[in-house]
Amino acid sequence: MIIDLYVDIISPYTYLGLELWERSSLRQQHQTRIIPVALGQILEQTGNPGPARIPAKRPQALRDVCMQCARFGVDIQGPPGHPFNTLPAMRFLLCIEDLELRHRITLLLFRAAWAKSIAVDTEERIVQVLRDAGEMRPEWEDLDGYIKKSGGRNLYKSATNDAVTKGVFGVPTFRVGEMNIWGSDRIPLLEDWIAHPERYPLDNYQRMLNLPSGL
Length: 215
Fold this sequence. Notes:
By secondary structure, the protein is α+β, with helices and mostly antiparallel strands.
């Protein structure tokens, strides 16, 4: 089974979700397909303002993610600046066709940004991170050329639009079949649902979804 995982490096919760996903039994049992998307575009298309646009929410969200990282033993320092240009990293990752390699490089770039406070906002800086980690490949030396040749811009746009079509409204989102489960804290629920689907008939969900307005 392939589990799709929608990510955006702009999101600290996606970083936390990736780290927790590495510890999950599902990561070992099933293949993960990392799908980079543009969170800003998704929020705009779904009418869902992000924490940065809500002054009261931003500090609480940052504190929450730092507390969760402390609880789970996940290193987090934050990038040198936020928000930052995510286009080179996200387009690059989508150009990597080998899913395990994409997964590994995704972790590398997210950890560079969020755990080590290393900028990954340009092709040159991404190349340096790859070199320092011993992950550089000949075809990535000219990263801008690689992204253009692979159609990274269109891949990224298509992935984002497809995500919205499939009901994705935030990151990280895990998708199994037609089911979306959103949030770094929902991995235990996903594990249990996959292991014991009989526990989740969801008849009550269908009823509540179709309730008439009470106003």
